[in-house]
Predict the structure.
Amino acid sequence: MTAPAVFEAKHYKSELKPIWCPGCGDFGVLQGLYRALSAVGRPPHEVAFISGIGCSSRIPGYTTAYGFNTVHGRSLPIAQGVKLANPDLLVVVAGGDGDGFSIGGGHVAHAVRRNIDLTYLVMDNQVYGLTKGQLSPTSPKGLETVTSPLGSLEDPINPLLYMLAYGAGFVAQATPADMPGMTALIEEAIRYPGFSFVNIQSPCVTFGEEDQQLKAHKTKMKTLASLKHDSSNQLAALDLARAYGTELYTGVFYRNPNPPPTYEALVKLRQAEQSKKARPHHQLLEAYLQK
Ligand SMILES: Cc1ncc(C[n+]2csc(CCOP(=O)(O)OP(=O)(O)O)c2C)c(N)n1
Ligand code: SF4
């Protein structure tokens, strides 16, 4: 069978049927992902999905691309290894807020500062979905769960500020309540030449709060374009990101207008420089034999 010249959304959809709860926001995210991949146009065998563990981390199984559903909190280091081993692959990392910012939080700074060309999609539902609704690092203060009968006493972390502060070149936020907007942002993140991050507010219908559901998102969301935000202005992005948890801003907070070289490009460059300096093997052998 010859591969199609144009890849439609359906070509990225695997035969595995998602087992998410009916109405879970991750269904919408998955549809948006298929569409974004189709717009980018890379064939499934040139794409790899890497995830940790969680409801959202099931995504690799639902695509026809290469996939690795790894260990809780370890998607970023494994994705970096995959990309460095095969820089031609388009590598997308997907997972939850718990996976990415709790157990895996220590890896974020290093993935960002290395600037390996990965797209990191976090399905931020403000709870641990898979393990039945415990507090996550983005849970709002006061949230009552099985592990917080007194209501959460901690402030949530702010994923947008986190990424911007570490220096990520592309930082955006989306919701599946706005499917065209979310799809366009995923596509733009994939096309960004360097580490890119999209915080996707993907509701957990089973354990999430009412004001975090799709219906609430539709009335609450405000596009950054409607605020006339200039996405090349990092300081303005930092200022707007502070509203995480109170406002639902969607769009690109920051896109580095002059993307620096990626880590993998620097590796290639250094290798080429060193091989020019290095004496070929046979010359070294001759020199040794003449001693
Ligand atoms: C090392 C390790 N610790 C804990 C767990 C249990 N565990 C699995 S998924 C998960 C959290 C899931 O929450 P999140 O990452 O936000 O994803 P969601 O299910 O909400 O999509 C936890 C604590 C595990 N699998 N491995
Ligand atoms: S528990 Fe929540 S996050 Fe997990 S599948 Fe159900 S609705 Fe989705």
